[in-house]
Amino acid sequence: MIMKVRTNIALIIFSGIFLSLIFSCNSGNGKKGESTNVNDTVVQEKIVKINYPKDTTQDEIAELLAGYSASVFENVFTDNMNFWNEYKMSIDTPWARITEERLSKMDNWSEKEVLSKINDTALLFYPFSGPDFLNAYHLFPGSNEYILVAMEKLGVIPDLFNMDEENIKKYLDAVNFAMRDIYKRSYFITGNMDQDLRKHKVDGVLPLLYVFIQKTGHEIYEFGYYRLENDAKTFTKIEKPTNSLNVPECIRFKVLQKGDNKLKDITYFYADISDDGFIKNPVFLQYLKNIRTCNTFIKSASYLSHYETFSNIRNIVLDKADALLQDDTGIPFRYFEKDWDYYLYGVYDKPVNDFPSKYLFQTDLDKKYKTEEVKPLDFSLGYHWRSGNQNWVLYVKKKQTENITTE
């Protein structure tokens, strides 16, 4: 892969009024509309620019996969970019629809109902996530770090810069096809993901993470594969993942929201977080036990946290989360009533037919929905996408008051 590195350096001079001079040096070609020589005089109270080397190749890949730009690949396409225009439309059209019907409404709802009740800049932990950074960001846009965990493999990006036209087309089509459930249902279906990532050239979640990072307005400053060492704290950068559930490996990004001034980390772990999975991978269990206090998000999670075979991950969430936003596929209501405040939204309905067990229906949660204040939802996010009978509960841990003696 051809690597192009741009270094952004911020020089702040303090003299009553702060003068910020930003210099951008790019060893590759500058992107369209990007200034390479900016001089701005601004009044500031602190340094606000990033002094961190940037790999511009990562943004070029993300822009291609997200249907934004193929400028660095124009010499590959020989059909006057007809294919690219079709690919771009195949992404732009469903994206415009889900933005109007779902994402923009989620933004408004989260700002009003969720972010005002929690520490909105805390770490977001998202178990059973798949590569779904998209919904995580729209509900928790201010998080300083995102940790996603699921059983879809990490995958690699092929050398697109040295790939011929036919194979680039096949790869892009496969990436777009893998997003079909997000377009239609708002969540990834495990069986579909497994087939998509085996049958086609998309061999893992990595390209989908690129798309979601780009589509949420982020620039990629750094990307790499990492292995968690036996101390459950140290990460070692590796060239390629083994894709073994017995080895704690992850993808890590450093990203910057366009217009922001602080880098954020996005980490996706390929891991089995059942109790049996933790037996085979105890280092990862210890790592999760060590994470700092966080917000947690669970949706479309196959009701796994209802079962005793997932007791470890349930206990970790209950211990580490100061706030938890979930649908009924997450941790059952009975674990929260005593030590948590809760806020009910939407409509509580029995599980969809894919999950027929009568034990998954929560009579205590159903009673709360029938007898307490419930606010409506104007968007659909989860298994009940056909009927729109979505339910969401925001749990906020009650603060333990300390006895203070005044002399």
Task: Describe the structure concisely for a colleague.
The protein is of the alpha/beta class and 407 residues long.
Secondary structure: elements and pairs:
Layout: E1 5-13, E2 19-26, E3 37-41, E4 52-55, H1 56-65, H2 82-114, E5 124-127, H3 133-139, E6 145-150, H4 165-178, H5 180-184, H6 190-199, H7 206-215, E7 218-228, E8 235-238, E9 249-257, E10 264-270, H8 275-280, H9 282-290, E11 294-298, H10 311-320, E12 321-326, E13 340-346, H11 363-371, E14 374-375, E15 391-397
Parallel strand pairs: 5-6, 5-11, 6-10, 11-12, 13-14
Antiparallel strand pairs: 1-2, 1-4, 2-3, 7-8, 7-9, 9-10, 12-15, 13-15
| Side-by-side strand order of the widest sheet | 8-7-9-10-6-5-11-12-15-13-14
For the record, the count of structural domains works out to 1
Please estimate the helix content.
25-40%
Estimate the global geometry from the Cα principal axes.
Answer: globular
Radius of gyration: 23 Å
**Which percent band covers the strand fraction?**
15-25%
Poorly predicted runs? 1-48, 401-407
The helix tally amounts to 11
Please tally the β strands and state the result. 15
**Pattern of helices and strands:** EEEEHHEHEHHHHEEEEHHEHEEHEE
Question: Which structural category do the helix and sheet elements fall into?
Answer: alpha/beta
Distance between the termini: 68 Å
Description:
With 407 residues, the protein is an alpha/beta fold. It has one domain (50-397). It has 11 helices and 15 strands. The chain has helices spanning 56-65, 82-114, 133-139, 165-178, 180-184, 190-199, 206-215, 275-280, 282-290, 311-320, 363-371; strands at 5-13, 19-26, 37-41, 52-55, 124-127, 145-150, 218-228, 235-238, 249-257, 264-270, 294-298, 321-326, 340-346, 374-375, 391-397. The chain has an 11-stranded mixed sheet, with helices on both faces. The chain has a 4-stranded antiparallel sheet with strand order 3-2-1-4. Helix 3 (133-139) links the parallel strand 5 (124-127) and strand 6. The longest helix is centred in the N-terminal third of the chain and has 33 residues, at 82-114. It starts with a strand and ends in a 10-residue tail after the last strand. 35% of the residues are buried. Residues 1-48 and 401-407 have low confidence and may be disordered.
